[in-house]
């Protein structure tokens, strides 16, 4: 830890000293030129219901993708399965207030196609209003909106050296003429990643211990293109259409080995090779219409669209098993996933009388039709289903209402209620397994903010949340993994309801202290079982399972954002402490891990703009995170850091950026997962380290305006 903090502290000290000296020399000059004071938003804003990461003018954008910047966002962490979390909790991701249809690795690949240069800000909404869907926290990615006449844009080229070499490039073109705006983005990436995994499976029955090690090298070639057309019909009405397409050609090779001991004596060992290839495709459409009466502050927002996602792949394993009777197992997996989503969403907002109150109402209809065909081939398929087609269909209908009002210029309030009803059907064609279910849920939320003065305020929020399983987590078809074990879904998974109480104290508009309490009494988490699979006895199987039991989570967080040297130097610091009471959860599920977990988390961002008045921007980011999720406990914290410098050439509109990523300590994931019959320690090491260089060429006038909430929306309920 010290090896990381010391160089960053020295860098900051040198920059401050050098800049002070430069400013002193300039002050002694006889001729004093006119001074232009530029007011910039703080890098990190802490509001009553969200934390806002303003990155529009940050040097971290150069050469990066939206996924890269997401990893640097305060309060956000990404686990070893590429799941995005906020304050350790699962999130739903929106782009310009439009919900993304992706999660996990699919969402990662999609965000990597959006150049960071298009980012205005990232909102981490920890206490969302009823406007947002049932899940817990929300991350809203807000993109820039070009607002100047004519053609403008940028071209980016990036080269990154990790264990292997990767390249990324994109072209941004924007055309604005009177009432019409057209944006076109095209990109291409060729990335090669290396990941090493080590696992120890301890099975209570038979006192079995299995150790596995694997290395995976993957290459992903991804072209993408998106188009946004927007037309202002008049000063109150706007309509447009968004089209998005991306695909990813993936190829990977893995080598794994393992050894099993029972009662301390050798039982068997294996080595396994895997090759895989696949093609992912996504096509998204969104037609929107917006009516905004600025005089009466009335807003009608209508969105309709369809999204298609397809994935075809072929994974082939060769497994040599050494035991009393050695054998060679050859298994291949063919899959061809197709997901279709259709939605219609309507939102309406208007003020009520002269009281300053605001009423918001809306609803959404969502239809999903997902199909996953799987086929196994090879010489050792005994005990395995060799072919099946998994179907998942659902219809989610929702209605919501929010009422916001301010009393005696001191107290801001927001009361909301959302109702969601889901009807879903699950089935396998060959096995005949099926499930049909439906349920509804009322999800209230309350927000109170009291301002003692311009410098001190206190807020309190309450939210009822509901997290639903992802469709693929239901699929019971069993397949082998690259580390020598098997995995499958669970058709009997249930949703996870939870309650969250959140309090935040603001001091001098620069210091914030917050506390959060979360409660749940059921959830689904990763589980490990042992079964005989063909000729392989007592094989380890990973699946999601339902867990009941009360879990209490407590969280305290302190944050400050400071600016120095006429807003040139910005420092954001955050420190959090978690305390989790799993005693009832562990007792009911027979888990042998600690009942109480406490740990620290921290993050910081340093940025310096226009160093030495030479158009040099510096940025440094550091995060210390722990990934304790349900029945998984982190063994040691994970440390991420990034240092970047960008040189801007105003006359030619060129930018050159150099990044150093995790150069002092390489990131890893080290956690132990507990289930009723086993516990597993997993260690993953990624190649998220190295250096990258980016070249950006801009053309045209780069003026933008903030593509964010309208005035009536921003004033409703404490900083929406």
Topology:
Layout: H1 2-27, E1 44-46, E2 50-54, H2 66-71, E3 76-78, E4 84-86, E5 89-95, E6 98-99, H3 104-111, E7 119-125, E8 137-143, E9 145-146, E10 150-161, E11 165-177, E12 180-203, E13 208-232, E14 237-262, E15 265-293, E16 298-322, E17 327-352, E18 357-378, E19 387-407, E20 411-428, E21 434-451, E22 456-467, E23 479-480, E24 486-487, E25 496-507, E26 511-533, E27 536-564, E28 569-581, H4 583-589, E29 596-608, E30 616-625, E31 632-634, E32 638-649, E33 654-661, E34 668-674, E35 678-686, E36 690-699, E37 704-705, H5 711-714
Parallel strand pairs: 5-8, 24-27
Antiparallel strand pairs: 1-2, 2-7, 3-4, 4-5, 5-6, 7-8, 9-37, 10-11, 10-36, 11-12, 12-13, 12-35, 13-14, 14-15, 15-16, 16-17, 17-18, 18-19, 19-20, 20-21, 21-22, 22-25, 23-24, 25-26, 26-27, 27-28, 28-29, 29-30, 30-32, 31-34, 32-33, 33-36, 34-35
Quick tags:
single chain; Maltoporin, Chain A; 22-stranded antiparallel barrel; eight-stranded mixed sheet; 37 strands; 65% strand; globular; disordered C terminus
Main sheet record: 22 strands, antiparallel, barrel
Strand content: over 45%
CATH-defined topology: Maltoporin, Chain A
Gyration radius, rounded = 26 Å
Helix content: under 10%
Q: What's the β-strand tally?
A: 37
Query: Which stretches are low in confidence, meaning pLDDT under 50 for 5 or more residues running?
Result: 1-39, 707-720
Which CATH architecture is right? Beta Barrel
List the total number of helices. Answer: 5
The general outline is globular
CATH class (first level) name: Mainly Beta
Which structural class do you get from the secondary structure elements? mainly beta
Tell me the span between the first and last alpha carbons: 37 Å
CATH superfamily: TonB-dependent receptor, beta-barrel domain
Mean pLDDT: 85
Oligomer: single chain
Number of domains: 1
């Amino acid at each position: 830890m010290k090896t990381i903090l010391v160089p960053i502290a020295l860098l900051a000290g040198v920059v401050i000293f050098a800049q002070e000296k430069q400013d002193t020399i300039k002050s002694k000059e006889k001729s004093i030129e006119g001074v232009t004071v530029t007011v910039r938003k703080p890098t990190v804003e802490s509001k009553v219901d969200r934390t806002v990461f303003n990155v529009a003018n940050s040097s971290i954008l150069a050469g990066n993708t939206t996924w890269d910047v997401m990893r640097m966002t305060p309060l956000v962490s990404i686990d070893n399965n590429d799941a995005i979390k906020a304050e350790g909790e699962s999130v739903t991701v929106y782009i310009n207030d439009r919900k993304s249809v992706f999660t996990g690795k699919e969402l990662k690949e999609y965000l990597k196609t959006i150049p960071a240069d298009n980012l205005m800000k990232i909102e981490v909404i920890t206490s969302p209003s009823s406007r947002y869907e049932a899940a817990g926290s929300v991350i809203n990615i807000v993109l820039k909106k070009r607002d100047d006449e004519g053609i403008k844009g940028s071209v980016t080229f990036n080269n990154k050296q990790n264990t292997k070499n990767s390249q990324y490039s994109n072209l941004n073109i924007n055309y604005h003429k009177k009432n019409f705006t057209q944006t076109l983005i095209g990109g291409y990436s060729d990335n090669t990643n290396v990941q090493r995994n080590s696992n120890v499976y301890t099975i209570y029955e038979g006192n079995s211990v299995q150790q596995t090690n694997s290395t995976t090298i993957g290459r992903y070639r991804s072209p993408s293109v998106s188009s946004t057309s927007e037309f202002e019909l008049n000063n109150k009405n706007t309509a447009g259409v968004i089209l998005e397409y991306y695909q990813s050609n993936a190829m990977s090779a893995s080598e794994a080995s393992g050894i099993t001991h029972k009662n301390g004596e050798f039982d068997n060992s294996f080595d396994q090779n895997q090759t895989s290839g696949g093609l992912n495709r996504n096509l998204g459409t969104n037609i929107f219409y917006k009516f905004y009466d600025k005089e009466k502050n009335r807003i009608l927002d209508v969105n309709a669209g369809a999204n298609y996602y397809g994935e075809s792949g072929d994974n082939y394993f060769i497994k040599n098993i050494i035991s009393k009777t050695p054998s060679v197992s050859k298994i291949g997996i063919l899959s061809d996933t197709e997901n279709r989503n259709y939605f219609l969403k309507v939102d309406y907002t208007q003020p009520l009388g002269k009281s300053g109150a605001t009423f918001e109402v809306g609803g959404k209809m969502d239809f999903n039709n997902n199909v996953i065909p799987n086929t196994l081939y090879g010489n050792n398929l005994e005990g395995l289903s060799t072919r099946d087609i998994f179907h998942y269909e659902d219809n989610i209908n929702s209605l919501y209402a929010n009422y916001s009002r301010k009393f005696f210029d001191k107290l801001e309030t927001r009361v909301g209620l959302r109702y969601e009803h889901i009807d879903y059907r699950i089935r396998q064609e060959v096995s005949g397994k099926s499930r049909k279910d439906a349920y509804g849920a009322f999800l209230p939320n309350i927000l109170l903010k009291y301002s003692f003065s311009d410098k001190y305020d206190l807020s309190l929020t309450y939210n009822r949340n509901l997290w639903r399983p992802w469709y693929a987590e239901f699929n019971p078809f069993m397949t082998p993994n690259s580390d020598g074990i098997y995995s499958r879904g669970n058709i009997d998974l249930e949703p996870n309801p939870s309650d969250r109480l959140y309090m935040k104290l603001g001091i001098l508009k620069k210091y914030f202290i917050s506390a959060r309490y979360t409660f749940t009494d059921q959830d689904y988490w990763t589980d490990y079982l042992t079964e005989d699979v063909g000729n392989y006895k007592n094989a380890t199987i990973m699946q999601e399972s339902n867990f009941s039991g009360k879990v209490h989570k407590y969280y305290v967080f302190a944050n400050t954002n400071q600016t120095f040297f006429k807003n040139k130097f910005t420092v954001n610091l955050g420190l959090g402490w978690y305390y989790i009471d799993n005693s009832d959860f562990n007792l009911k599920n027979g888990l042998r891990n600690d009942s109480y977990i406490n740990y620290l988390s921290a993050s910081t961002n340093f940025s310096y703009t226009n160093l030495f008045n030479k158009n040099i921007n510096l940025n440094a980011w550091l995060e210390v995170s722990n990934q304790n999720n349900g029945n998984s406990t982190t063994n040691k914290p994970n440390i991420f850091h990034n240092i970047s410098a960008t040189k801007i050439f105003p006359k030619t509109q060129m930018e050159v950026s150099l990044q150093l990523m995790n150069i002092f300590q390489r990131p890893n994931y080290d956690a132990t997962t507990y289930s009723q019959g086993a516990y597993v320690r997993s260690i993953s090491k990624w190649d998220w380290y190295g250096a990258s260089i980016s070249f950006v060429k801009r053309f045209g006038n780069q003026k933008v305006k903030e593509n964010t909430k309208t005035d009536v929306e921003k004033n409703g309920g404490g900083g929406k």
